[in-house]
Specification:
4-stranded mixed β-sheet; 10 helices
């Protein structure tokens, strides 16, 4: 049974206009659990995929002027979607062309980040190889400044193309205000990323492939492909920004690249193995929560709140979620 009366929430004319756009698919009452790696989330009243930039621009314009709420998602690998779903329009941009001109690589936002990493390695271009195994799309990687093993995508991003009120605009990397897992796009949620240009440097493909393969092996042990999770739930903490009293409690051996891992604080408050319904903290990693089967967003959010509260009480610290939310908590 559908939870929504679509005609009431989204005018039939909006649905028809979206369905008329070439290269756009429109589906009603789509379970978002099928579009999130957690495998959690109720239905989207309307789920829209656009496979070309012109199609996406028109679809987004219709969504924005429809009066219904809307959200743009990528591959759903960093999302907690409410158990009651999203009573508006969920859009996904799936255009995924990747091309290059010497050391300049262009990718559309709907491309898989891994496809971009592989492309750069095959073309003997250094800069993205440590990002191998990070799931999701290029657009979301820019949105959250994805990274791993000491590097993040902002280091090679040169220009980002995005939609602002129906107009395509270009920002340089400095205008994107990249920081650790942050960009201006997290503040301006209506600016939707269309593509990116990255400046890479020439290097032997075999060397890059070896680096990527070694990293992927370690990552697959930590995050088995079948694990229903979002990677790290919380951001790490910038050591220099912590109060002196907290800094003194952090052993030097856990500090990496000027950051104190959230996992350290979580471990101290007994997070490993904690469970709420079908949702569990990994026994081997305190900052990794997964759906063990039958987990709900309610369980997940309750567990996150409990972990935050324990760290707040013990250390006086506020952990910040890396994971993004869609829909209101049921
Ligand atoms: C096993 C595992 C390991 C992970 N490891 C890492 C890691 O090492 N490093 C790391 O940084 N992340 C990691 N992550 C998190 C995740 O891979 C990244 O956050 C990724 O960039 C999310 O991509 P996505 O396409 O799935 O985005 P989604 O989860 O669908 O969306 C994430 C956010 O991006 C926004 N968004 C999506 N597309 C656009 C767009 N075109 N324009 C504007 N906003 C957009 C959405 O609105 C949402 O707020 C991991 C996740 C998993 C499951």
């Amino acid at each position: 049974m559908l939870l929504y009366n679509l005609d009431k929430m989204i005018a039939r004319v909006t649905i028809d206009r979206l369905a008329d756009i070439p290269n756009v698919s429109v589906s009603e009452g789509v379970p978002l659990s099928d579009h999130t790696r957690f495998g959690i989330g109720g239905p989207a009243a309307l789920y829209v995929e656009a496979a070309s930039e012109p199609a996406f621009c028109v679809a987004l314009g219709i969504a924005q002027s429809s009066g219904a709420g809307y959200v743009v998602i990528g591959a759903g690998t960093n999302l907690i979607v409410s158990d009651v779903g999203f009573d508006g329009i969920v859009l996904r941009f799936t255009a995924n062309q990747i091309s290059s001109d010497g050391t300049l690589v262009r990718a559309e936002a709907g491309a898989e980040l891994q496809a971009l990493v592989d492309y750069s390695i095959e073309h003997g271009l250094r800069g993205l190889e440590t990002m191998t195994g990070i799931p999701g799309s290029v657009g979301a990687a820019i949105y959250g400044n994805a990274g791993a093993y000491g590097h993040s995508i902002d280091e090679c991003a040169e220009r980002v193309r995005f939609l602002d009120c129906g107009m395509a605009r270009d920002f340089t990397a400095s205008q994107c205000q990249f920081r650790y897992r942050e960009s201006i796009f997290k503040q301006q949620k209506d600016w939707i990323i269309l593509g990116v240009e990255l400046r890479l440097t020439p290097a032997p493909a075999t060397e890059l492939r070896k680096i990527a393969d070694d990293i992927l092996k370690i990552r697959l042990e930590k995050y088995p492909v079948s694990m229903k999770c979002a990677g790290s739930i919380f951001k790490n903490l910038i050591l220099a920004e912590l109060p002196e009293s907290v800094r003194q409690q952090i052993p030097e051996r856990v500090v990496r690249e000027g950051k104190a891992p959230s996992a350290y604080f979580l471990e101290q408050v007994g997070a490993k193995g904690m469970q709420r319904g079908g949702v569990r903290v990994a026994d081997y990693h305190a900052n990794l929560i997964y759906n063990d089967g039958g987990g709900t967003a309610r369980d997940l959010c309750a567990l996150i709140d409990e972990l935050k509260s324990r760290v707040r009480v013990r250390f006086g610290l506020e952990l910040e979620e890396e994971v993004q939310h869609v829909g209101r908590l049921s």
